[in-house]
Amino acid sequence: MTSPHIPTVEDLASDVLTHRFDDMFNPPGLTNFLGAAQVDHDVVAVRSVNFPPYSHGDTVTGSLYIDGRLFRSFGCEVEVVWRPDRVVRRAEVDELFIETVTACPPGTAGVVVDISITNRRDTVRVVSVALSVSSTVTRSGGPWLASTPPGESNTLERVTGRDAILGRAGSSAAVSVQGWAAAGAPNTTSGSVDAQAPRMLRSSLRLAPGETRRVGYIHTVGGTEDEALAAFDRLAEDVPAVISAAEAEWNRQLTAAFTPGSGEFTGSMPILETSSDELRRLYWWGVLGVIWFRRDNPASVMGRTYDTLMPRYWQTTTFIWDYSLSSLVHALLDPVPMRRHLEHWVTTDIHTHFGTEWQAGAPVGNWYSVNDYAMIRLVRDYVRFTGDLPFLDWSLAAAGEPPRPVSEHVLHWSQAWKSLRRGSALADYGEIDNLLECVSTYVHEVASLNGANVWCMRVAADMADLRGDDEIGKRLREEADELAQQVNELYVQGEGFFHARHPDGSLVPVRHCYDFSTVGLTMPGDLTAEQRSEMVQFFQRELQTPSWMRALSPFDADATYSVRPDHQWNGAYPAWPADAARALAALGAGDVMLSWLPGLSRTANQGPCGQAHFVEEAEPAVNGGAVKSPPQFPYLIDWACSSAGSWAALIIESVFGVSVSLDGVVTAEPLVGELDPGARLTGLVVGGVAYDVAADGTVTRTSN
């Protein structure tokens, strides 16, 4: 029997989203945990069909023609509804109602589209349906180190005995097969392939008035013709059954995420019992947004991994920063792969890259200044939620260094800032590419990461205490107190925001949410009551919007530098509103946080969090929710981002006020009672012991 407190695919469905060709619309993605695909501005077409080690890049294929005319040229409105298991698209053109259901089949490198066409005339008609096929499949033979997966030119040829086209890579062992479902398959109509130019799949439908006919499109990739054709044939037998299997599999995975010992995950998430639709929606949004990025792909040298973006950019890459922003969910839901990633990252030089490409285990990109803070957060969350204290004594060797316990690596990361000082008491965190990438003044000595260093030293001190190193703990806390005073020298008195200190000594005011959230979360006790009040007022005045927030204030002089909405005035990266809400609670403004949650919950209406959402002034809201930003230049925003776990952390740690110490002591100081006095978190597993947390702060141990 299904629990009302565990989501199904229907519970997580998006609102009906509408667009016309090339609107500011980010088309939804799909995954089956092997790879991903994205639907396009069309009712049939798909793009970014990438299942490592096979990839098409961002190639669009399956574009629809009706009676010889390109569908998208009609300019008609397309309705889109996303669910974890499928994307439903609908449109009406020339008295034809077209509905398609797109899914990634469980366990298969491919995608299927079930196409239904209904005649809305009162006369019989014959409709020509065609799909334009493109193929750029490749197998690169190495890590994918660019933002877009690789592709190469293919030759196209008809497949004997099937209504299908085979794309063959010229320089690698990779093929794709695209075609119609098998003739005679349930409720389907057979088709054909152009003989002279094998790039068009054609089908002719004779429709009586009001009649609906179905045709299925299948797209598979593989290393050999036999492999791709075998997968194609299996899917082509019954496309509706494949789509039903995707639904069943996704419902099974969602149930498993909230079920200890499910065998699908190495941990589980607590169940939220609440009468508040807003809390439930935000919590499920956060959990889904991590599950969505799980990859169980044989091509991974890391075993199970979690991607960071999808379905268009940086597939096969796990960014340390984004992984840390969902740290609490990883620690609760899937701690075994979390530990494996931690061990891997410890053995690399985290000051030289931003993440790992999982087909090769190779470092990717430039240094992100946040890495020390991110790694300490990850280790701390892993240890306190799993109870795996021996991990702190586990000996690992960083690149070019002798082995040492993880706790000593934490100590090293907590002190790494000292080597970045450039004639000041604060660390210089480098240039724009090391930080927020699209705010030119947010460089060098920034308040956020220097404030994080205060927190990092205090965490390292707690770990030293556990090992009996009292002197080290005492020294670290003293240094943290001194550093907090230096961070406060960047504060703009009376304004609620901070300066960045540049190499020439100039203090440049930067009205950015990352300072607000990070300082607010890492050193709130080192701020005066006046500072805390001013920071909250600044946030409400310049950053907060009804259903989202601005990453940068529109009053900031650098607001003209970029229109990329993840870190600029016109929107925000998905973790920033969640972390800002947590910071509000930490700064003593829990009432402001709670009053904001209903508006934020309206933004969970388009599938998982996008890499950025626009604020309402930049692009009109969708049914009250801040709209996802689009992928095209100059925005370059992917449809989903794995830092979504920050929303679950908001509910658990701020709304319910749950605190878990390094040694596993669970306490709670909830704010949730003001929204729902009967709310509970059940099955919060800490160190192998389950706890229930009530709205009044009662923590009850429910298992040994």
Automatic annotation (TrEMBL):
Gene3D superfamilies in the cross-refs: 1.50.10.10
An annotated GO BP: carbohydrate metabolic process
Protein's name in the database: Alpha-L-rhamnosidase six-hairpin glycosidase domain-containing protein
Biological source species: Phytoactinopolyspora alkaliphila
